[in-house]
Amino acid sequence: MEKSNRDNIVLLFDYFNLGSRDLLASFSNAGYEIKAVCINDEGFLPDNVENVFEYFLGDISGGNNLAKPLYFNQIKVPEYWQISGNNNSGSVHDKSKERGRIFYQEPKNKRLVKVVDWLDEDGVVKASDHYNKYGICYGRTIFNKFAKKVSKSYFDAKGREVIVENFVTGDIILNYKGVTRFFKNRTDFVVYYMLLNGFDKKAIYFNSLSIPFFVSNALPQCEYRKCDILFWQEEMGKDIPGNMQLILDGKAPRCNRIVVQNNPSYERLSKVDGAKNIVSRLGFIYPFERENLGRKEALICTNTQEVEKLQELIEALPEVKFHVAALTEMSAKLLSHEKYDNAILYPNIKMSTLNGLFARCDYYLDINHEGEIVNATRQAFIQNQLLLAFNETAHGLCYTAPENRFDAKDFRKLIYRLKELISDRTKLKKAVISQQKYALTANPAEYDFN
Question: In which pathway does this enzyme or protein participate (predicted)?
């Protein structure tokens, strides 16, 4: 195998999640002409990412690259059945009996069909139809009477069955170019795909210790060195994952490098035995959208009324305009804050309005309890908003610098920090730079792995 270069790398993802998107974008921004491959897919991958299963389906656009996803009321149903929906999901009814449930692709408010579950007489799911970004049903999952997955079939654009994956036995049957092939598991199936495309001769960069790691181990070894790299993007638990330990012990056939992409995990991994020459730290080349302009406006996104110390913050910082947004209705408790001149509340906010608030505000307060909505801390970070949080509510620990995180009982420290930043643009600028540094913001020169 030739030495790794900018045209000799395959990015192998298990899922095309946020970390996968950031890694691919970072390589692209660093000038790489790179092949990106994803094992799991829900039909909406970008054009520059190839799905292993869909590779064998041929042109899944049906010959129409301009085709669009199905709108929720465009799915085919028997005559007289009714389709209804809201901004979260849809349903299919035969009079008063529910026959189907419609699940949307994100963002859900566009109501684009991703999956339709079909129900039996008892309301238990019996099958799921999977739709892609061209509005074509490319897959069907079959369930048993206990609503457990049994198998999934993949179809070409003409509806012909090409692949069947058995979830009970784990095996896969492939009908491709007139030949039927059997694989005992996903690893063997992906290895076949990699060999078929000559990717075994390239360096494999992966961000998962499951199937991508198994594939790396199963491919023929590099001729003169270990060329594959694990990009670790997850949080670390108490114990080192067993598969990662194989790399640290030098027992992985092709991989002897671990690039850690968040600070907390790096601090943990860099201290383990064997890490010295294997573990390194590298972030992403983030697509920042603007500079922080120092405007005295703060954004809070929540779908719960429990927003930590909201009243205290509003009262202590009359010079700051607080924008509180929710995708749902707001409780009377939360709406009561409208009595303050420096607070604006947005129940049932539209995404266009929310996007405008991300562009308008220069501070983000990660102080809502329960789950995070709209990847808010990530969006705030990309907008170069200065993030502040309580430790009890923080959702974006990888983006929020430690000096901007406080215990809720010490909320006055957060107030003091915010006062300090809004009154001194130099300190604010330094705080934004510190935030970027903590999140391991990288530059193209750092993406050199030769």
Answer: Protein modification; protein glycosylation
pLDDT in tens, 50-78: 999 999 999 988 777 778 999 999 999 99
Q: What confidence tier does 5 reach under pLDDT thresholds 50, 70, 90?
A: low
* Nearest of 267, 245, 243 to residue 14 by alpha carbon: 243
Helices and strands (H and E) in the chain: how many: 12, 23
State the first-to-last Cα distance of the chain, in angstroms, to the nearest integer: 13
Residue 395 to residues 76, 175, 372, 405, Cα–Cα distance (Å): 40, 45, 6, 11
Per-residue confidence at 224, pLDDT binned at 50, 70, 90? Answer: low
Q: Delimit the domains of the chain by residue range.
A: 9-55+185-281, 72-155, 297-438
Q: Average pLDDT of the chain?
A: 94
Task: Name the strand (E) or helix (H) holding 49.
Answer: strand 49-51
Which residues are CB-neighbours of 276 under 8 A, at least 6 positions away?
none
For residues 99-136, one letter each, b for 16 or more C-beta atoms within 10 angstroms of the residue's C-beta and e for the rest, the string is bbbbbbbeebeebbbbbbbbbeeeeebbebbbbbbbbb
Map tokens 């369930």 to a residue.
Answer: 143
297-438 matches 9-55+185-281 in CATH topology: yes
Coil, strand or helix at 43:
coil
Say which CATH superfamily domain 9-55+185-281 falls into: Glycogen Phosphorylase B; (3.40.50.2000)
pLDDT tens, position by position, 336-391: 999 999 999 999 999 999 999 999 999 999 999 999 999 999 999 999 999 999 99
CATH of span 297-438 = 3.40.50.2000
The b-or-e profile of 43-55 (16+ CB within 10 A means b, else e) is bebeeebbbbbbe
